[in-house]
Design brief:
The complex is a heterodimer of chains A (110) and B (118). Chain A has strands at 9-12, 18-23, 35-40, 47-50, 64-69, 72-77, 86-93, 99-101, 105-109. Chain A is an all-beta fold and 110 residues long. In chain A, strands 1, 3, 4, 7, 8 and 9 form a 6-stranded mixed β-sheet that branches. A 3-stranded antiparallel β-sheet of chain A has the order 2-6-5, with no helix packed on it. In chain A, a hairpin with a 6-residue loop joins β3 and β4. The radius of gyration of chain A is 13 Å and the shape is globular. By secondary structure, chain B is mostly beta strands. Classes of the chains: A mainly beta (110), B mainly beta (118).
Chain lengths: 110, 118
């Protein structure tokens, strides 16, 4: 069981928008603005797409955005493209000084 | 462009020690913190620990009694040693840049699959 809770799967049609939630506790997501999101294609290493809740690294499409409310962080992908089909995982720093991850969400683009 | 590359055995026997090395290229290993993260088959990611070039380290309490992470600045490498392994330690092990004040992981190695089996 992962420390952060994500839906196992989400789906959306080409061009639409989807949102993936990441629920933690007051010991992680609720306390720190250190939530990051990773995209992982099969057999590949995770790729950072959002850090510190809502910041995008250089080179990441602005179709990816992040937000947080209370103990839940969210990743929104707008204008879905076929290449967005992948697993998405959230992470948060915690009050115990470690990083925890979600179980991952498989995005299917219809 | 920073690049990371894991190396080590793909098969380790139960009760033995799992050794992995990460070679960093494209920049010095100093300045940043460096972490090991693993992903068990069909499961989520698990942060193992980090090290700084000075040798300062921090580990996940769930693995702390069995883990040592070390650094060799002359080779721009850092290493993982996981002792007394069991089948539950079978996973893809990633090295990544991040840890401490750098609260995300922005560069990752391609991953090394390590299977624990006799």
């Amino acid at each position: 069981q992962s420390a952060l809770t994500q839906p196992a799967s989400v789906s959306g049609s080409l061009g639409q928008s989807i949102t993936i939630s990441c629920t933690g506790t007051s010991s992680d997501v609720g306390t720190y603005n250190y939530v990051s999101w990773y995209q992982q294609h099969p057999g590949k290493a995770p790729k950072l797409i959002i850090y510190d809740v809502s910041n995008r690294p250089t080179g990441v499409s602005d179709r990816f955005s992040g937000s947080k409310s209370g103990n839940t962080a969210s990743l929104t992908i707008s204008g879905l493209q076929a290449e967005d089909e992948a697993d998405y995982c959230c992470s948060s720093f915690t009050t115990t000084g470690i990083w925890v991850f979600g179980g991952g969400t498989k995005l299917t683009v219809l | 462009q920073v690049q990371l590359q894991e190396s080590g055995p793909g098969l380790v026997k139960p009760s033995e020690t799992l050794p992995l090395t990460c070679t960093v290229s494209g920049g010095p290993i100093s300045t940043y913190y460096w972490s090991w993260i693993r992903q068990s088959p069909g499961k989520g990611l698990e942060w193992i620990g980090y090290i700084y070039y000075s040798g300062t380290s921090n580990y996940n309490p769930s693995l702390k009694s069995r883990v040592t992470i070390s650094v060799d600045t002359s080779k721009n490498q850092f290493s993982l040693s996981l002792r007394s392994v069991t089948a539950a330690d079978t996973a893809v092990y990633y090295c990544a840049r991040g840890g401490s004040w750098y609260h995300h992981f922005d560069y990752w190695g391609q991953g090394a699959l390590v299977t624990v089996s006799s």
